[in-house]
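One chain given next:
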Amino acid sequence: MSGWRRTLALGALVGICASGLPDTAMAYGPGDSQQSGPTGPSGSSDGKGKISATAGVVVYDRSNNGSGQSAGPVASTTTWTPPACYYAPKYSPAQLKAYLEPIWEAGSTGYEWDAQQRDRYVNGHPYKDFNKDKSGKGYWWDSYVTAGREGDPGALDCDKPIFWVDKGDPPPADTPQAVTPEILAELAYNEIRVPGTKVTLAPAGTTKVNLPTWAWLDGAQFKPVSVTASVPVLGISATTTAEPVSLKIDPGTSDAETYPASGVCPIDGGRIGEPYAKGKASQTPPCGVKYLRSSGNGSYQLRATVTWKIHWTGTGVPGGDLPEGTFGASQDVVVQEIQSVNR
C-alpha cells in the first residue's frame, strides 16, 4: 500500500471514529457544489413500500429483501466473496480541491508527497487545476470499502491515486475493481437477507424415540428475495436475486435417520417439507427425522440450513449466476423414550 494512500486511509479512519458511524466511510458524493459535505448513509421511502438507502455513491433498494428479526445474510458455498473494495465516482473538481488542499496545508504528509500531489492535480502532470474546466463533464473516481469489510486485507487492494473519468467514458482498463453492473451485483449479494430457518416440527417440542418427526418451513416466507444496487450518476444498476432450492436437516446426533436419507429436502411447488395433518401418523414424512436414542436430560441441536440459488441481471448485460449461498439455524429437540406399561 502506498504511503500517501496509507496516510489518507488513516485520516479517513480518524474521521469515521469522530463521526460515531463506525460502519460508514466518509466520502464526498459527486456534484458541482464546493459546499457539499461528505455523503453519509441516508434513506427514503416513496410511501408505497419502496425503500432505498445509500452509503457513498451506491444506492441499495432493499424493498424486496428478506425481513424479520431472524433474517440474515447468506454465506457463499465456495471461497468466493464480494469485492472488499471498488472504484466509483466520488468528487467533483471543486470537491476534490476542498478535500486535498487542507491536507497539503496541514503539512502532516510531508513536503515531498504534497509536492507530488500538487503536481498531479494542479500543475498539469497530468491534471491542471483539479480539472475545473471539466466541471459537469465527468467525475473524480476514488476507492470505496464495502460495508463490513473495513478490516479485510482485500480492502487495501484499491490503492490507485484518485483519477478522472469523463462522462460516458469507461474507466481505465487497468482498474479491474472499477464499478460495473457485475460489481454492483456482487455488492448486492452482500446485502441479501433471507428468512430464518427454524423449522416447524410435529410432534412439537418433544418427540419420541423411533417416531418419525415431520419438519417443514413456512412456505409463505420462503420465496425469492432480491436487492438492487445502482450508481445513479452513471446510470447503471444490477439486481441480485436469491431463490430457495433445498433444506438440509442435520439432526445433531448420529443416532438418527433423516427423511429423505440424504437429509436434503428439495423445494416442491414453493413448499419446503409438508405440514403434518391428522391421519398421517403412519406415513413417512417427505422431510423430517427419526431419532433412535433418547436425548436424556438434555436435547439435541437440530440444524436446518436452506441453500439459495443466486443470479443477477444488470444494465446492458444479461447477467448470470453467482455462487449459491446458505443460511441456517439450530434449535433444541427433546427426545424421550416411549413409555410402556407392563400388565
The longest helix spans residues 3-19. The longest strand covers residues 317-336.
